Amino acid sequence: xxxxxxxxxxxxxxxxxxxxxxxxxxxxxxxxxxxxxxxxxxxxxxxxxxxxxxxxxxxxxxxxxxxxxxxxxxxxxxxxxxxxxxxxxxxxxxxxxxxxxxxxxxxxxxxxxxxxxxxxxxxxxxxxxxxxxxxxxxxxxxxxxxxxxxxxxxxxxxxxxxxxxxxxxxxxxxxxxxxxxxxxxxxxxxxxxxxxxxxxxxxxxxxxxxxxxxxxxxxxxxxxxxxxxxxxxxxxxxxxxxxxxxxxxx
Length: 250
Fold this sequence. Notes:
The protein contains two helices and 19 strands. The chain is mainly beta. Strand 8 and strand 9 form a beta hairpin.
């Protein structure tokens, strides 16, 4: 039995609903980092990349379990060519919870790859139960028929939290897809989504790529965003970003 199959058997993920004529992803891209250079939550090649991220007590914290908060989507493991991926059908929003709070202090970037059955928008949320802080990413445009590679820069104030009396840290125990910034009625999610190669790394060469993506998104949008990257309405009070520039909205 493959390692990824064992993983999802352990955490008892829900059985996937079959979607007729769903587009089948190709084999996920090969990660360019050595296993010892990165922290792995889930990877396409589970025989090569192991669970190295730790929780606050130093224990591996890469196992997920689905949280039932009223969402209608279902999640399963799926073969993708010669790799493996997590499959999500009928996303409305999806919280995935770690066994315990996971500390990301040793890494700067959170990397994840998506394949979607139709073009869509998606944002992600990192949440820490105590003291209840969360970080919402900008909205990403995902293109159908290809692996969309996303690197999120964690080295920012909005994702530097103080847990109880401890030093500021990057910590998370719930990772959530959707349900924060995207208007799903105007921009429906793809019927089927695959995600894989969920890792953390310190490769600073991705900084330029991230900056270029943000600049392109800002230049092509008339939407308003707060400083955390969340889309806000015209009635929002405070500093907003529009067309890549900051304004104070009264």
